[in-house]
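Tokens as discussed.
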């Protein structure tokens, strides 16, 4: 991912309400971001742990979405992130839900998928972070192919959010 100015990131959200945009702040670590290791920028709101943000460059432009994370997080089960295919134990992969853009979102239509709870898929596919109690599925494909698959899965999810 290329380095993005904060104004571009904050202006990219397709499913945020005016109130959500007012509360939206870049993560505290934004200035230290290692952009070359990321396929998307993702963070949770420290003041509202049930809210997350994901921003990615797609074939249809820069897209940011507000995510809703579960309040009651299940314990003692494994889950697979649908973006990077990393297996996590307990709360490592969560069902995150995004309100759809436009009229569909106004009508409370949502799209959900399991995503790494720390929004660090980019690090998992590159082997820069390991999942506690889970881990990468045994694969024979290269890191480049895993990154390409992550991009494809991410673009599919964001397209479902953006389609009205």
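Sequence:
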């Amino acid at each position: 991912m290329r380095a993005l100015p904060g104004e571009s990131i904050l202006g990219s959200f397709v499913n945020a309400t005016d109130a959500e945009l007012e509360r939206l702040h870049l993560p505290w670590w934004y200035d230290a971001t290692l952009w070359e290791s990321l396929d998307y920028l993702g963070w949770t709101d420290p003041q509202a742990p049930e809210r997350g943000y994901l921003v990615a460059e797609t074939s249809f432009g820069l897209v940011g979405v507000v995510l809703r994370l579960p309040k009651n997080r299940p314990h003692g089960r494994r889950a697979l992130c649908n973006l990077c295919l990393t297996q996590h134990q307990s709360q490592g992969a969560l069902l995150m839900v995004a309100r759809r853009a436009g009229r569909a979102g106004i009508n409370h239509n949502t799209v959900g998928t399991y995503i790494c709870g720390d929004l660090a898929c980019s690090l998992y596919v590159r082997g820069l972070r390991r999942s506690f109690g889970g881990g990468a599925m045994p694969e024979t494909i290269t890191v480049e192919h895993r990154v390409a698959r992550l991009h494809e899965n991410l673009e599919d999810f964001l397209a479902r959010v953006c389609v009205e």
